[in-house]
């Protein structure tokens, strides 16, 4: 059974940084494209960033230049480095395969950015 566990969220001020982690268990993630997604209160879940098995990355326009997705295949872990955070980045952040699989959604990690 595949399990994805997100961590690293918290309450920060605008302009601060956070690094989120996603630990994958139950299968190796090295062959999967992985992604980060987020859901703000009252909004639909949206795409944030993705990384292929070979390390190619793609970002939503809203985070491009501020967020960096990376992966450590040896640790079966995917990261999201978030810099220059803005209040509009406040959301629950989730990782998943890319495209996402319904059975892979975890609990997410809350990121709150105060102005």
Descriptive notes:
- The chain has 115 residues and is an all-beta fold.
- The protein has strands at 3-7, 10-13, 18-25, 34-39, 46-51, 57-59, 67-72, 77-82, 91-97, 109-114.
- The chain has no helices and ten strands.
- The strands form two sheets. The chain has a six-stranded mixed sheet, with no helix packed on it. Strands 1-3-8-7 form a four-stranded antiparallel sheet, with no helix packed on it.
- Strand 4 (34-39) and strand 5 (46-51) form a beta hairpin.
- It starts with a strand and ends with a strand.
- The model has no long low-confidence stretch (mean pLDDT 95).
Percent in strands: over 45%
Task: State the distance separating the first and last CA atoms.
Answer: 40 Å
Helix/strand class = mainly beta
Total helix count? 0
Number of strands: 10
Query: Radius of gyration from the CA trace?
Result: 13 Å
Q: Which word captures the global form? A: globular
Lateral arrangement of strands in the main beta sheet: 2-10-9-4-5-6
Stretches where pLDDT is under 50 for at least 5 consecutive residues are none
User: How would you sum up the major sheet?
Assistant: 6 strands, mixed
* Mean residue pLDDT: 95
> Could you state the order of secondary-structure elements as H and E?
EEEEEEEEEE
Helix content estimate: under 10%
């Amino acid at each position: 059974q595949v399990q994805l566990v997100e961590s690293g969220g918290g309450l920060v001020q605008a302009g601060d940084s956070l690094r989120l982690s996603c630990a994958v268990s139950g299968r190796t993630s090295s062959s999967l494209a992985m992604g980060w997604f987020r859901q703000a209160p009252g909004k639909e879940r949206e795409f944030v960033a993705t990384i292929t098995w070979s390390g190619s990355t793609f970002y939503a326009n809203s985070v491009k230049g501020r967020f960096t997705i990376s992966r450590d295949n040896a640790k079966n872990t995917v990261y999201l480095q978030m810099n220059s955070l803005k209040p509009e980045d406040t959301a629950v952040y989730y990782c998943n395969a890319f495209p996402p699989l319904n059975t892979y959604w975890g609990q997410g990690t809350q990121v709150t950015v105060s102005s």
